[in-house]
Amino acid sequence: MNGQTLYPRLEPLFAQVQKPIQYVGGELNSQVKPWDDVAVHWALMYPDAYEVGLPNQGLMILYEVLNERPDALAERTYAVWPDLAGLMREAGVGQFTVDSHRAVADFDVLGVSFATELGYTNLLEALDLAGIPLHAVDRDEDSPVVVAGGHAAFNPEPVADFVDCAVLGDGEQAVGDITDVVKAWKQQGRPGGRVELLARLARVDGVYVPRFYAVSYGPDGAITGVTRTRDDVPATVGKRTVMDLDEWPYPKTPLVPLAESVHERMSVEIFRGCTRGCRFCQAGMITRPVRERTITGIGSMIDQGLRATGYQEVGLLSLSSADHSEIGQLATELADRYEGTNTGLSLPSTRVDAFNVTLANELSRNGRRSGLTFAPEGGSERIRRVINKTVSKEDLIRTVSTAYANGWTQVKLYFMCGLPTETDEDVLEIAELATEVIRAGREASGRKDIRCTVSIGGFVPKPHTPFQWAAQASAETIDHRLRALRAAINADRKIGRSIGMRYHDGKPGVIEGLLSRGDRRVGRVIERVWREGGRFDGWSEHFSFERWTAAAAAELAPLGVDLDWFTTREREEHEVLPWDHLDSGLDKEWLWEDWQEALAGEEVSDCRWTPCYDCGVCPTNGTEIQIGPTGRSLLPLTPVGPGA
Amino acid sequence: MARQPDGPPPPPTVQKLRLRYTKRGPLRFASHRDLARALERALRRAQVPMAFSAGFSPHPKISYVGAAPTGAASEAEYLEIGVTRPCDPEAVRVALDAALPAGIDVVECVEAGQGTGSLADRIDASVWRLELAGVEPAELGSAVAAFLAREEVTVAKRGKNGPVDVDARAAVAAATVAGDPGCAILTVVVRQVTPAVRPDDVVAALAAVADLRPPSPTRAVREAQGRLDDTGRVADPLGPDRLARTHCQGERATV
After folding, report:
1. Quick one: A201 and A254 in the same domain?
2. Can you give the pLDDT at residue A643?
3. What does pLDDT average to over chain B?
4. Chain CA centroid to CA A217, Å
5. Where is the composition biased (Basic and acidic residues) (chain B) (predicted)?
6. Tell me, what's the pLDDT at B252?
7. Do A407 and B71 touch (CB under 8 A)?
8. Which residue ranges form the domains of chain B, and what is each CATH number?
9. Does the pLDDT of residue A73 top 80, yes or no?
10. Alpha helices in A406-498 (DSSP H)
11. Is the four-CA dihedral A486, A489, A494, A498 of positive or negative sign?
12. Residues A165 and A292 in one domain
């Protein structure tokens, strides 16, 4: 019978593995609904370890939205570590949900959220453990519909063979529409089998069903065209956009794990979308337009969430949180509200801007000031113009030394390496910058124990961005520049000892690049890597570059392409890109012009302040920027906390 | 000179409460760190007026005594908290129990009796109940007899810096066998020594002396903790506090 718990069979296995708590469920605010009470059963997967997947906001939102429906239930499943996977195979127990340990294969829909492409091998492992046929075409009507979501779903072509569909854009409303379609099809007695169900799903706004689109290739290996194979599915698939975030105050009751997770805090999304126009940033391109939650909406989510979780820290989440039109007032009023309650408030990394130091001061008014993070991204002024994240060296040094002067002892600076047009000199400027930051910081703060950490990784060009045509830097280039930077930082020992450097080598970025801009042919590489034991590719102790390059060589050579063709090759203006039939709303011409302007080092301004519809998103999707200020303010309330 | 927080120091502890709680069902897979996190959050949700340490990263005043290992269930875990307002212990118990996940159940809460000494001093032994599925009681009985007849039974356990040898025999104060056909039950009183001898080490010791190898992982439940007396019994560690309270009934505000 479907929906039975596997727990009695799993329990003896849990006794033999590392950190078993991650598999037992029962998190605060988790939900278990009776199987037979609902028409549609969703398993929601984050294809990485529980500690990474549990805090994921997207999955938490959909979990609540679906469970609020009387006709649906949603349970969660995460990638299991190899120790448990081995025992499960021996014992013949399948991939399970943590909520009530039901078999994933019993569910109607398996939704998988891809924040990064490095989760693809974990998808294959989960499908195999679940006993779901790996290839979508081999599944019958009893198999779950495998749906990919998240940012990587804007180019799902590398996993097109393994997923039944992909959802582009915001999921809140799309999951409801999918539920309606599955429910109707089941209640009608499953007319037309699985193919009919997928055809109906393909007509849902934002849902892409790869099997209904055929890809053809030219003799040079490039795509010549993508055509639909049925005329009742759309020629291009658009994205979903949720308007009015105040109407979607999710998660209302965030999940609190017993196990340790990567974020020991509650997050509130203060706005969605970003129009700063940083050219490397896929998130900023595909989530347009900006939609702010109002100050009062944010205030009530924080209040409710803290009461529901007992967390001590709240992160104000978005792509560029200091840009919220009411952020100054929000910071002051939240600091007032939570004074004396041991509640911490924080912003994620911010743009380099003096105002952001003021904000961070205000948010930390009641507590400790330790680390502050800025993201200049590019080492030289020239490269920062190329990526459209302009800040002068003087402003950067002034801002950071202000932070030190205000009692912040550690500043972390995020950079990327391997950006288009970048030279060794652009990267070496990071060392000069860090040195001057420490010098100015010591002077401004009067202390010697301040620290600056340079955090740097290789840039991976992403679909639906102006850099989608760019040649990705090779792993050798990245590693060479990182080594040179390290040497430059260590050259002046008196200053260098105050500077830390954290970096990732260039190899995983190359594979991420293959998976990001790959087409359907890359699916064979993923499958081969998984068959040879590839899992948890986002973890350095599990990632094997050699396994990936060998698999790529073996699978791609017969097709006349190779790893370099997908990564370090610059694309022509009119090359058909694998994701051209997937519409983020951005005009391809606008993206090309922006790419050309990038090469010329020209900036583009933010449409929130200089009205402009050039990128094409608002006219295409019928959306508008939604920003304040609203003129409202937070009323004092009795916050949760000791002494209350 | 390190920066100090502005404002007055945190309010002092005016009362100490001692709690017994459980680790039941799937929650037996929680580690001590998992439990500590869950308890701290639950204390906030339950609005218990916790006392905090001073400084920039204030910590709630909680002391844990002898946590059960990951994978072992328990009916008798103990902790002590400091609060800034006098509280009714039963109200704290009910509120905290409601704020914790099912399986971590707060079963007792008493006010620390004045002059009764520390909680840690009242605990030096555990009573463990081990279920050995697939093992016959008679088989277990002879293994336990062989074990008890030894002066010393050394087993290797995983330590932070590689394997460590411990004497499992010396730590065992008493052991009795019961159970049904197909599932033997071992009740064993184990002294809390360093390095710790855990239920798994006792099972390993039985394998060493009598080649007893249960076909599936042993399920362990800690049934009691307390001070081991000369008769081999383990005393209730909250007994002295309960006794002190009957002599001194004060006015108590609710949480």
Report:
1. no
2. 40
3. 90
4. 30
5. 220-233, 242-255
6. 47
7. no
8. 15-121+237-247 (3.30.70.580), 124-226 (3.30.70)
9. yes
10. 424-445, 475-491, 493-496
11. negative
12. no
Q: Is A638 on the interface with B (CB under 8 A)?
A: no
Q: Are residues A254 and A210 in the same domain?
A: no
Q: A335: helix, coil or strand?
A: helix
Query: Contact B41/A14, CB-based, under 8 Å?
Result: no
Rounded CA separation B202/B161 (Å): 21
Residues in B closer than 8 angstroms to A259, CB to CB, are: 34
In chain A, residues with a C-beta closer than 8 Å to the C-beta of B102 are: 26
How close B241 comes to chain A (CA, Å)?
A: 25
Q: Do A194 and A285 sit in the same domain of this protein?
A: no
A186-244: pLDDT as tens digits: 999 999 999 999 999 999 999 999 999 999 999 999 999 999 999 999 999 999 999 99
* B186-229 per-position pLDDT tens digit: 999 999 998 899 999 999 999 999 999 999 889 999 999 999 98
Which range among A46-55, A167-176, B234-243 shows the weakest confidence by mean pLDDT? Answer: B234-243
Find where tokens 């009957």 sit. B246
Q: Which domain holds residue A333?
A: 245-521+561-621
Interface membership of A365 toward B (CB under 8 Å): no
Number of folded domains in chain A?
2
Q: Which residues of A touch B85 (CB under 8 A)?
A: 643
Beta bridge partners of A414: A455
DSSP state of A613: -
- Per-residue pLDDT, averaged over A617-636, amounts to 90
A353 φ/ψ angles, rounded to the nearest 5 degrees: -160, 130
Query: Tokens in use for B130?
Result: 């081990």
Taking only the tens place, the pLDDT of each residue in B43-54 is 988 999 999 988
The answer to whether A260 contacts B70, with C-beta atoms less than 8 Å apart, is no
Alpha-carbon dihedral angle through residues A637, A640, A642, B1, given to the nearest 10 degrees: -80
pLDDT band at B239 (very low <50, low <70, confident <90, very high): very high
The domain boundary, picked from A161, A186, A220, lies at A220
Q: Provide mean pLDDT across the span A573-592.
A: 97
Residue A316 belongs to a domain: yes
Q: Has residue A231 been placed in a domain?
A: no
pLDDT score of A368 more than 90: no
A99 near B CB under 8 A:
no
Q: Do A21 and B70 touch (CB under 8 A)?
A: yes
Q: Cβ separation of A256 and B41 shorter than 8 Å?
A: yes
Q: Do B44 and A310 touch (CB under 8 A)?
A: yes
Mean pLDDT, residues B93-119 taken together:
93
Query: Residue A212 in contact with residue A165, Cβ under 8 Å?
Result: no
Question: For the residues A49-65, what does the mean pLDDT come to?
Answer: 96
Residue B49 has its nearest CB partner, among A23, A25, A643, at A643
Residues A252 and A189 in one domain: no
What Å distances lie between residue B232 and A347, B172, B188, B240, CA to CA?
A: 57, 11, 11, 19
